[in-house]
Amino acid sequence: MRTTVTLDPDVERLLRNSMKERGLSFKEALNESIRAGLIREKDSRSRRFVQKTFRLGAEQEFPWDKALDAAAAMEDEEISRKLSVRK
Fold first, then answer.
1. I want to staple 24 with a disulfide (CB 3.0 to 4.6 A). Which of 28, 42, 56, 64 is the partner?
2. HSE (side-chain half, CA atoms, 13 Å) at 46
């Protein structure tokens, strides 16, 4: 199939470097690059993401369900400290 493709300058540079390094024609380098990209895209979509979790133990002193409230309180204290130093 013949078609016209407009390449960005950086893509053209990468393609021409690949041609020189591997001794390929423009057509071969372009086809291999597109093929590799499409195969990699297909493989990455088919993998299922699994989040690893770890037990923190039964006895935790910090109330993790209130972490955002604690962070907000610390930020408020720091802002108040900075404002009082300016006066």
1. 28
2. 6
